[in-house]
């Protein structure tokens, strides 16, 4: 059954994680994969590689994206989407941009957005460009909301400005407002004027008491900070 397979995958992944050498964790799975032809078994092994998250498996998972079998492609996308580091982001973006399979495009887009939120030494400006790309690929409001949710964890002025651009879209206002407030909480001491401007806009236009209250609390913090600086 599928639940039995999932338990087996978890067990193999746990055993693999006990191998001290990180680079060898996926070795046993990679060794048997070429000899496994049956689709369900191949998909299970690809899922295990995703759970292990060892970069030595990335070339095999990337190659699986181009196999003819749709189930194997799906398993590879899911494995890359669950990766513990941002390395597969570019491969997922390619799928999100060019796959003819709508489910694959959405799975890859969600995975891409998830990987954007992982710790990375990528420049902040590059991260925003990737979120802009994700927003352009999101096919509907539901997927755009997921992108804004990811963006809300990026604490930069550019991220706040990007989120604020969607305050005019009624279907996205709550998520955009939430993102602006989340980002503002991390940057208001560095950019008090720009943050106050966006928060004021939320206070004047939101129908949500919760968003209005959160925005007002941050504005109060900014004003207290300004008063403290003037006293000094």
Helix content: over 70%
What is the overall shape? elongated
Number of strands: 0
Percent strand: under 5%
Element-level helix/strand string: HHHHHHHHHHHHH
Radius of gyration: 22 Å
Q: How many H/I helices?
A: 13
Helix/strand class: mainly alpha
Determine the mean pLDDT.
92
**Beginning-to-end CA distance, first to last residue:** 69 Å
Largest sheet: none
Low-confidence stretches: none
Write the layout of secondary structure elements.
Blueprint: H1 2-17, H2 27-32, H3 39-52, H4 58-64, H5 70-81, H6 89-98, H7 102-116, H8 124-137, H9 141-151, H10 157-164, H11 173-187, H12 192-205, H13 209-231
Helix pairs in contact: 1-3, 3-5, 4-5, 5-7, 6-7, 7-8, 7-9, 8-9, 9-11, 10-11, 11-12, 11-13, 12-13
Describe it for me?
It is elongated and about 70 Å long. Helix 10 runs antiparallel to helix 11, helix 11 packs antiparallel against helix 12 and helix 11 packs parallel to helix 13. The mean pLDDT is 92. It has a domain of 94 residues. With 232 residues, it is mainly α. It starts with a helix and ends with a helix. 71% of the residues lie in helices and 0% in strands. It is built from 13 helices and no strands.
Please describe the structure with a list of short key phrases separated by commas or semicolons:
13 helices, 232 residues, elongated, mainly alpha
In short:
This protein has helices at residues 2-17, 27-32, 39-52, 58-64, 70-81, 89-98, 102-116, 124-137, 141-151, 157-164, 173-187, 192-205, 209-231. The chain is mainly α and 232 residues long.
